[in-house]
Known about the structure:
Distance between the termini: 146 Å
Structural class: alpha+beta
Strand order of the largest sheet: 7-8-11-10-9-12-13
Oligomer: single chain
Radius of gyration: 49 Å
CATH topology of the largest domain: Nucleotidyltransferase, domain 5
CATH architecture of the largest domain: 2-Layer Sandwich
Strand content: 5-15%
Number of domains: 5
Amino acid sequence: xxxxxxxxxxxxxxxxxxxxxxxxxxxxxxxxxxxxxxxxxxxxxxxxxxxxxxxxxxxxxxxxxxxxxxxxxxxxxxxxxxxxxxxxxxxxxxxxxxxxxxxxxxxxxxxxxxxxxxxxxxxxxxxxxxxxxxxxxxxxxxxxxxxxxxxxxxxxxxxxxxxxxxxxxxxxxxxxxxxxxxxxxxxxxxxxxxxxxxxxxxxxxxxxxxxxxxxxxxxxxxxxxxxxxxxxxxxxxxxxxxxxxxxxxxxxxxxxxxxxxxxxxxxxxxxxxxxxxxxxxxxxxxxxxxxxxxxxxxxxxxxxxxxxxxxxxxxxxxxxxxxxxxxxxxxxxxxxxxxxxxxxxxxxxxxxxxxxxxxxxxxxxxxxxxxxxxxxxxxxxxxxxxxxxxxxxxxxxxxxxxxxxxxxxxxxxxxxxxxxxxxxxxxxxxxxxxxxxxxxxxxxxxxxxxxxxxxxxxxxxxxxxxxxxxxxxxxxxxxxxxxxxxxxxxxxxxxxxxxxxxxxxxxxxxxxxxxxxxxxxxxxxxxxxxxxxxxxxxxxxxxxxxxxxxxxxxxxxxxxxxxxxxxxxxxxxxxxxxxxxxxxxxxxxxxxxxxxxxxxxxxxxxxxxxxxxxxxxxxxxxxxxxxxxxxxxxxxxxxxxxxxxxxxxxxxxxxxxxxxxx
Length: 662
């Protein structure tokens, strides 16, 4: 910057500073302004005269403001610099002096200009270069010293780093968190060279610089940076973080009830009265845990046109569990088939397949969950799951065609010889279409269940309970599936001719039986004879299992989440059964089945040999059904325990030995 421009800048800035003085309350403000202006103008004029002598050029006229200002003081230059002026200016208040200096410093960042202006003003008004007089500077220094002393006193108390067992958690943003002896540390950095991780104290608000080190692989404690904590332990905060992280891990199992888990977790903390007041409310913790659980899954779909993320379609072995996913009008919506290559291979190898549908465990948006189970070494194991939107034959046709197509691609022929179903016509017709020659039998359990239901609808429960003749006649219909196939026509004819007298309801029941089980459902579908197993109780037991685990009508994400876990358990069970590591248990063929088979064989032989007539033969078969406790809840409604008692669990009564002769 040229000297002229530099002086011009100084002049403008100093005038601006002088205006601030003019606005002040000082009585000598005019004298101050004139003195500053004269000093700068004198310097500028001297510089201009030197420049004119060298270049012989006319000096430009001063601006109007300077002319007006200097016109009244040109003859008083000596006065403006006389000793009277400083005495006049010395009356400026400390505040005005500070304003002059600080204002001048704020008008320019150019080092030479700023230095000249501050020097001029400081020399003229006896002000310090930093804009403070001696008293202000001393006071400022005392304040700084006091603040430093307060800080030193604040950090005099230190708390050593306690070493103990390490547990882990997550922050709100998903960062790693370390708990050790009632202290919390957050992940700071990782040193691959030193094979360790650095964890800083969580208390940023306290400016705590304590850092601990852990091994990168074993996560064991290695040491610290030698700096202790500058704050005491906040035990309540540590308990809160422990509780939140424990609950987050627990509620990843979607069957866990969040409010109940939160209540239990807070109760287990054993808080005292003071901690109870300061601890977060349970509903606040519940909201936090619900947000964590919600972040685990996508938003719930409003219809069936949703995409299934990989996290819900891949098993632990990175294999897709979905073997078919289609949306067609003939299916009334979406059809989903779930299985794996290993489970489908076992389905191809089995000779007995059981099929049943459940509605309670089907997710919202689907009508039913179809379970296809196979017999592996004497135990029923679920091998395929299907979510359907209706119960039409076209839907079942697609299920079986997909399974057959898979077996053809794998060059694995299906070896099934027998199916056990409920009495759904659409399912039965579909199986007959795809598996020509396979034997299809209905479930004896479902057969008896249907009869019991009609008994209740006809109001026969009181008679069934109190009248032995009616009870034996009704139970004989339930025993018909066990009767030998050659004897079955004679047994039906006997029951038709021997209706209990005086009971119109029994006549109604006979008409129902003839219409439903002789015309609509041919006898070959419900007659089981000496076949083992006679019912699909395997599937009924499995329905109870998934009902407890999946819940009633779960959402689709919960269903898929639990299904992936279920598939893993089933895979393990299959491997143990195939390699003979486990023996069949309660879910396998019950020993009573063998007893019933032997009893049926003995009864058939006695009937053929003439030892039993048809009446005694049927009555003996009723003993194989079991005891039904009916009528205890409502005289016209079947209690829930009635159907469960249909299972063959009892043996025929043993004949009493003749009394010993005396």
